[in-house]
Structures are given as C-alpha cells and as structure tokens.
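Sequence in, structure out. First:
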Amino acid sequence: MTPDEAREMIRAALVSVAPDVVLDEVDPDADLREELDLDSIDFQAYTAELARRSGLAVTEDDQRRLTTLAAGVDLLTRARTHR
C-alpha cells in the first residue's frame, strides 16, 4: 500500500465517524483526537473501521499509535509491505 492509499483509507475511516473531517487541514503529527475533537467512542469506532477497511487486526498497541495521521500511514504501509 502506498502512503497516498493509506491516507485515503484513513480519511474514509475517519469520515465514517466524523463526516466533516478535512484531512488536508490536519497536521500529520497532530493528535487526531484533539485535532478532530474525537471522544474515546469515536476514536474506537475509527480504529475499528480502519481495521475493517484494511483487513488488518488492530491491536491495543496499534490503537495507541494510530493517534496521528503520520503514524497511521506508517502502520498501514508497513503492515501491507510485510504481509
């Protein structure tokens, strides 16, 4: 998976939880929960949707890393490379 494909998958997963999300305005290293005003339930729904879309098992450790766009892109591109 390319970084652009990973960003698009993250965007789609976030939009399913927070329809007004505009990722172009989000700093890649900013905490998505703070930047997009996601509560814990929204964030859990986002990570579950990302797991569903990617076909990857998202562990608790992964959830802690998925707090930024950059970390999400890294996780998805590395996971797809090592499959």
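Second:
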Amino acid sequence: MGTATERLEIRVTPEDKALFLEAAQIRHESASRFVARAAREAAEEVLEHEQTTTVPAAFFDAMIESLEEPAQPIEELSSAVRRHRSIVKR
C-alpha cells in the first residue's frame, strides 16, 4: 500500500468511536490506521464477492468440456452474416 496522502472523514457514534479506539490500542495501531485497514479489508471482500462467479462443479466441468469441442457452424448466424454482407457495402 502506498503513502497515505488523502483524507476521508466520517461521522461515527460515540460508542463506535470508543470501540475503534479500544481495538486500535489492542492492535498497537493508531485509530486512523485501524479504521483505514478495516475499511480496506471490507471493501476488498465486497469487490471480490461481486467480481467472482461461483458455479457448481458439474456445471463448470460441462462448460470446460464444451469449450474443448470443435466449433460447429450455426446456419442461422451464417445466413445472417451473408444477408448483412449483401446489404452493407464498405
């Protein structure tokens, strides 16, 4: 992580502030460092969850197997390409 040069201000309840200060003291960190680290970990977890797709193993195996099969032309798509080429002139 780079040098911290940006500021982010938040409002918290007195109870939350006391909780953060106590936890930071136990970790031997400043309250600012403790809150920034905890927020970063939470943000990374949210992003990882949102950017990861989980599927059942059987589905994954079937998908990989289908990707390894030779491509088969789809007549409807081939026909659409031919029509497009006859209409669009470059």
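Remark: Helices lie at 14-27, 31-50, 57-68, 75-87.
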